[in-house]
Amino acid sequence: MILSALLTSVAINVALCLFFFILYSILRNKPNHAYLYVPRLVAEGELEGGDETSRRGCLSSFKWVKRAWKPSEDELLANSGLDAVVFMRIITFGLKVFRFGGIVGIFILLPFNYMGNQLNIDVTDLPNKSLETFSISNVDDGSNRLWIHFSAIYIFTAVVCYLLYYEYDYISCKRIAYFYSSKPQPSHFTVLVRSIPASPRKSFSDSVERFFNEYYPSTYLSHSMVRRTGKLKSLINEADGVYKRLAHVKSKKHPEQRFKRDGFLGIFGKKVDIVDHYEKKLEDVEGNLMTERASAAGKEVAAAFVSFKSRFSAAIVAHLQQGIKPTEWVAEPAPDPRDVYWPFFSSSFLKRWMCTIAVVFACICITILFLVPVLFVQGLTHLDQLETWFPFLKGLLTLKIVSQVITGYLPSLILEMFLSLVPPVMVVLSSIQGYIALSQIEKSACIKMLWFTIWNIFFANVLSGSALYKVDILLQPKRIPELLGVAVPGQASFFIAYVVTSGWTKTFSKELLMIKRLFWRFLKGSLCCKSDEELEVPSNPYHREIPQILFFTLLGITYFFLAPLILPFLLAYYCFAYIIYRNQLLNVYEPKFETGGKFWPVAHDATIFSLVLMHVIAIGIFGLKDVTLASSLTIPLPILTLIFNSYCRRRFLPNFRGYPAECLINKDRIDQNDPTISSFYDKLSTAYRDPELKSLRNSGSSHSGSSSLNTPLLGSSHRK
């Protein structure tokens, strides 16, 4: 890619970002968009959706930037929890890394790259100059200037490792402090016990009662059995859907709109009163629902939530083998009640095992299928390949502006469009893998999405083209540094454009403006009759955003010494992300679960992988550049990095797997002087009751008039 093509891509994206920024600032001040752009404030009662006066005083045009910047970390912690703080620490970590890397890369490494003569490019024609001129590829083979790059790699690695250690230590301490400051939580006193042995004379509930009364008589408190409620949940969803349609029909002003034909698609058959039709259907569904609810009370699963009188007792049970057979009485820490993924418990062990194998196979298939758009995108970055594939475009591709847009902007845009389809798929795959908590599903999807992105966006693009066909090199591990040393620098221009398109524009359009939801809201308001909408407060999209942030960290670390020109674009992205995500966490997203900062080890491991990858590429580059001594002296660097990672895992990771006994016992001693602990124990006995088994609200009023439409039919139907 030439410099002018990159500038074209940057200009297009800067214009789009500015447009989205101004449009968001305007739409945010519209009262009818409060449910879209500040739903959390509306849900918490801090902002009335239709109160224009309060909005005008609270949310003026561009002042939202200052309000997003102003809250301290402690305020963010109190508002959104420790996971939100860790999420922002991942962003600020990138800011710190690339602030230092940008200074070294732009002011030291970039001038040495540009002054090289390896590529023999005319220095007078700057707009048509290849971006490789600014990369290490332009440094002469055997040049002593490469020792500057060698020194920069060592210094940069030391700085990144220091920042990693500091963040790991800081978040670890923050996690302990957050535990001490928290009120008693049901998950701290409860364990999930599975594989309860069946008894011909006793129910599972009786077996649990007998076992824990016998072996934990002084600390056992209560238990709540898990029951099969899959069919019950489907009936609840059906009843909820019928109720909403009935409410919508009753809200219509014109009576003639309440009649339709009962045949196919409402076109054939005789005319019927829709209200009577839906009311009768609602009665049938409620009857089935009550019958299924009564029968579900006896459908026990060989699993139970067992609660204890102290956190320490629960921790002992969770980490010790309970039965003689390791496959029976399997205990693990219980998630928070609102974090439980109830559909999982309806699956047998064999089904869970088969689903896990199916998920692995599906991930492999998705990874392979995604190579198709990757190869197509790489063809767009090389006009000669594009002319070979589509000869009829030869005349059009000769136009300068067309070639610049196609090579500079279009490839990253197409790749991002395909990539946006993957996160929901990863969530679905993780949900059927056997996890018992929504947070575990989210974390699993985050890890899947991270490695999918690294492989399909980085390695697939790097190894596509001529390098992909060098199978002999791929089969020889010793030559992998050589392969990466050749292939990675050549893709610097593509990844710079990708950062601008996927980082800048996507963050403004998809995350800040929420353009899809805005378009759907506009379309729904234009084509459908407006009715009272249920306020929807979205949850934090960690599985989608954390992989992207960490992938940009990988790009910045990898290209730090190869093509430092990417660093200013990354630094700008992290600045945008800092403001935008703070705004979203404070005003839009509502935490649906709390892991206590368990996403940070994922970020730490991804950064270590990025450092090792940079070292491997450096070994190959220095070897290709005939600086064999520098290549040899770089070999200890990945070894030292892995030793550092091993130390960090031993030093900090245990605190993220569970709380230490010292903290649990101290917290239990504090509870002894807490007068409210007895009421907490009373609530604990029912905290893990399946939401689908909760009693119905009085639905008979649904036939009494329109006033009943303001009350949901089912207490659990609107559960998040």
Can you characterise this structure?
By secondary structure, the chain is mainly α. Helix content is 62%, strand content 4%. It is built from 31 helices and 6 strands. The protein has helices at 3-27, 34-37, 39-43, 52-58, 63-69, 73-80, 82-114, 146-181, 204-215, 230-250, 274-296, 311-319, 349-369, 371-380, 383-389, 394-397, 400-408, 410-419, 422-431, 438-463, 471-474, 480-490, 492-513, 515-527, 542-558, 566-587, 600-624, 628-634, 636-657, 661-671, 677-684; strands at 190-194, 220-227, 259-261, 271-273, 300-308, 330-333. The chain has a 4-stranded antiparallel β-sheet. It has a two-stranded antiparallel ribbon with strand order 3-4. Helix 7 runs antiparallel to helix 8 (146-181) and helix 7 (82-114) packs antiparallel against helix 26. The protein has 2 domains: 3-184 and 351-658, no CATH class; 186-345 and 697-710, no CATH class.
Q: Provide the helix percentage.
A: 55-70%
Number of helices: 31
**Unreliable residue stretches:** 49-59, 695-720
Number of structural units classed as domains = 2
Tally of DSSP β-strands: 6
Helix and strand composition category? mainly alpha
Spatial order of strands in the largest sheet: 2-5-1-6
Strand content: under 5%
Main sheet overview? 4 strands, antiparallel
* Gap from first CA to last CA: 47 Å
Net shape: globular
Q: Report mean pLDDT, rounded to a whole number.
A: 81
Radius of gyration: 29 Å
